[in-house]
Amino acid sequence: MIGRRMTGLHLHGDLWMGGARLIRDLALDMPAGQWSCLLGPSGIGKSTIARLIAGLPGPYRLAGRLAAGDDLPLAGRVALMAQDAQLLPWADLVHNVTIGARLRGTRPDLARARALLTEVGLAGREARRPTELSGGQGQRVALARTLMEDSPLVVMDEPFSALDTVTRLAMQDLAARLLTGRTVILITHDPLEAIRLSDRAWLLGADGAEALDLPDTPTPRDWRAQETLAAQAALLTRLHRPEDAICSG
Amino acid sequence: MQRLNTPFLRGALAFGLALALWQGVVWVSDVPHFILPGPGRVATSLWANAGVLAEHTRFTAFNLLAGLSAGAVLGVATALNLALSPGARLLLRPILIFAQAVPVFALAPILTLWLGYGATSKIVVVMLVVYFPIASAFFDGLMRLPAPLTDLAQTLQARPMRRLFLLQVPHALPALASGLRLAVVMAPFAVIVGEWVGSSRGLGHLMLMANGRGQTDLMFATLIVLAAQSLVLFAGIERIAKGRRKAH
């Protein structure tokens, strides 16, 4: 935690994919040390925004500005947690968690890696290989690796969408607890996930991002609470488009 | 019955059947033994010529292993270089593809002309023959790092050399094993072709000699030794590949 400075993130402009404009007039101001969530239909460019912030290559282009709140460069300060846990099948869990340091040629902190594996609930499994883990356990390792990086900015691109509902709720609680104090950009298509975890949330559309109303309660919000359920119902109503039902039905 | 169904017994049964079939053909067709000797004659020849066979096998096996090792080292080094350097890819890849189109077996006479009748020309033929499958299989594996791991390396700001040895090489090991398997199938061909083109020693040379003298039984005996040599080689590679997989 020492030495890590919190920073927000600003993303403004038009997002292009090849020759086509995906989203225009984006205006996202994501506050430091909070969870910002981007929701939207598939194909709108959610994952493209994740790649853009994480500095990953692709056929996209931002006509506008992406900058950290403190105006320092983003490179090296963003950790990515994706739907694929990105684990090395040939290495044990400690090696997987410390891969960042080894890839950069610095000394891995093995004691910290073990401590983080314990924090994500994988104590005693340090010598296992990812192939011996369930999907949820794999994402726990990915979370430990993300924490190991100690980046001020964490981009999560649908990290829990391949998990079953119960595991997903547990992972949301765990991530909310362990990523406290970081600037998290969560990309999801799960309305409940957005409402449980976000301090701010936007619904993406071709004409820009629209800020969503969230309950006043602290995160992670109880999925049984009346405010959470009401917000989820309201969001589902907004997302539901009758023409989709007719097309797919 | 279930207990008898082991790989060893199945192999012995198939081998016995093949022998019986062979002997059957010899009896039924009544061909002269200098056209097709029976298993008994070949076994006798194998026993009687054990010393000669062993001596020539040593020469051939050494060239085989030396060529295979040299080709493997060179192939692995080429693949690593190509994976690390886009410039090398730009220059070397077309050459590699073109070189692969040259039937290396056909180079054996030229290599014998240049390098002489001794071991060197055989080692070089084997080396060239196994080099391409190893280099191209390993290189393919190195370049096919799955997209999630490519993204991981980029977000973690990996150094190119570290990325190569910590991510690409472990991921490409199964591809390297396939290349090696292909290589050990081709290597015994190559070493015999090398000896046929010109040699005064080795199993290929022994076969030509036996052929010239009408010793068909010795030719068959040599063939059996060659087959045994290839089987030992395959088994060795399988062992290495399996050990690797376990270590994974």
Task: Describe this protein's structure.
The complex is a heterodimer of chains A (249) and B (248). Helix content of chain A is 35%, strand content 24%. Chain A has 249 residues and is α/β, with parallel strands linked by helices. The longest helix of chain A has 15 residues, at 135-149. Chain A is globular. The relative contact order of chain A is 0.18. The mean pLDDT of chain A is 89. Chain B has 248 residues and is mainly α. Chain B has helices spanning 7-29, 39-48, 50-84, 86-101, 108-115, 119-143, 147-155, 160-197, 203-212, 216-247. In chain B, helix 3 (50-84) crosses helix 9. The interface between A and B is medium-sized, with 25 and 18 residues.
Low-confidence stretches of chain A: none
Name the overall outline of chain A: globular
Estimate the helix proportion of chain B, in percent.
over 70%
Determine the most extensive contact between two protein chains: A-B, 25 and 18 residues
Would you tell me the structural class of the helices and strands of chain B?
A: mainly alpha
Poorly predicted parts of chain B: none
Secondary structure layout:
The complex is a heterodimer of chains A (249) and B (248).
Chain A (H helix, E strand, L loop, with lengths): L8 E9 L2 E11 L4 E5 L6 H9 L5 E9 L9 E5 L10 H5 L1 H6 L5 H10 L15 H15 L3 E5 L7 H14 L4 E5 L3 H7 L2 E6 L2 E4 L14 H14 L2 H7 L1
Parallel strand pairs in A: 3-7, 3-8, 5-6, 6-7
Antiparallel strand pairs in A: 1-2, 1-4, 8-9
Helix pairs in contact in A: 4-5, 5-6, 7-8
Chain B lengths: L6 H23 L9 H10 L1 H35 L1 H16 L6 H8 L3 H25 L3 H9 L4 H38 L5 H10 L3 H32 L1
Helix pairs in contact in B: 2-10, 3-4, 3-6, 3-8, 3-9, 5-6, 6-8, 8-9, 8-10, 9-10
